[in-house]
Amino acid sequence: METQCIQEQLLFQQLRRRKVIGRFDGGAISSDAGGVLLREVEKRCGILKRVAGCFRDYRDPERTEHSVEELIKQRIYALALGYEDLNDHDTLRQDVLMGLLCEKSDPSGKDRVRERDQGKGVAGKSTLNRLELTPEGANENSRYKKIVAEPQKLDEVMVEVCVESEEQAPAEVVLDVDATDDALYGKQEGRFFHGYYGEYCYLPLYIFWGEYLLCARLREASEDPASGVVAELERIVKKLRQAWPQVRIIVRGDSGFCREEIMGWCEQNDLDYVLGMSKNERLNKEIASEMTQAQEIHKSTEAAARVFKDFHSRTRKSWSRERRVVGKAEYLAKGANPRFVVTSISSDDQDARALYEDLYCARGDMENRIKEQQLGLFADRTSTGWMRSNQLRLYFSSFAYILMQWLRQLGLKATELAQAQCETIRLKLFKIGARMTVTVRKVWISFSESYPYLSLFQQVLGRLQQSPSGG
């Protein structure tokens, strides 16, 4: 009886003479009412609907309450709203807002077939878990797991959505490639101890064009950082050139991708590249005089000094040809800091300083995009036992990122959140308290009167409603 009283009434420190009492009896209130903005994006772009089309559903329609599209929306919207764990959905399923986002005919769940499910508009953790864990060979005869993801189609949608976001063909596309660590704490399939990161992890590969995500591939950490890059570039470049035959494509990456296979493929397929190179004794000798010059400038100015050198070089064995190399002789307060890049871009097209500072160094923004997805959209939540299901989780996170990117592009442009990361967007635009009321003809969302970003919210909604519908 004592526990029941605690659940019904919470006592806090008094406000002078007044008692402060809390109760969980407010009714159908959502803390994520701003998520309706994501629904507006989806209504115009149809991204999640297309993601759902990448799954084969072998379930019996007469015994199915949640369509694949509804399950996909529930999972990805929840990630965007900050819910990384499937366990969260056993509570979220009672949120009328989530039923609205998933386009349920009755978002309050009062029309559910079984009495125990009534009042729960969307799926619980067990149903979503079966979605993630369905093996590749499942079919209508499988017992529980019957929704099969088709990774190749998911890869295609990721690129197609990017292409469709551009109203006109761009003159140039710079494809940033990078790998990162995804720490593992269990006995997951494919785990490997990586010496550089000093932990058991996966080594996912990412390919971005600016803020557009084109590839998120989960890999074992035992693989070379450049493993599989050519295959990913082949399919991406094919899609880009089908849409934009005249576009110039540049591949950009750090020294982990300075491989003959990648450079040779780019040269054979009319792509340019600018890739970092690991420094060595031979390269350091090439810029020895420039480094001396940089050191003298540093002594006289007490500021960081850079001197660039343009030269051609090749390795003794691994490269098939001589290539242009740009050396940066930099001297800092802590000493010499030489850096090198190899490129197919001619010096007539871009001089050494511009190539390094303006083109190569701009790849650093990609690292921010990866961190945003890992930290804000839980791309590193790869805790199932199998690579396939962990890759599917990475897909879900990736499409949550893409949905947020479309929100930035369509709704946040020219606002104070135009360059904001997803965690800031979530805090300011999504986390709004609201009372949800479902009637026969309407769904009322009564937002908090004290919401501090009302004008911004109205501005974003107005921009979304003015954007053309493509979904």
Task: Give me a quick take on this structure.
The chain has 471 residues and is of the alpha+beta class. The protein is 39% helix and 20% strand.
Tell me, what's the shape?
A: globular
If you compute it from the alpha carbons, what radius of gyration comes out, rounded to the nearest whole angstrom? 26 Å
Mean of residue pLDDT values: 94
The CATH topology of the domain at 152-376 comes to: Transposase Inhibitor Protein From Tn5, Chain A, domain 1
Number of helices: 17
What structural class is derived from the secondary structure elements? alpha+beta
Beta-strand content bin: 15-25%
Question: Major β-sheet, in short?
Answer: 9 strands, mixed
CATH superfamily of the domain at 152-376: Transposase Inhibitor Protein From Tn5, Chain A, domain 1
Based on the structure given, which CATH architecture of the domain at 152-376 is correct? Alpha-Beta Complex
Number of strands: 19
- CATH class bucket of the domain at 152-376: Alpha Beta
- N- to C-terminal distance: 53 Å
Unreliable runs: 1-6
User: Share of helix among residues?
Assistant: 25-40%
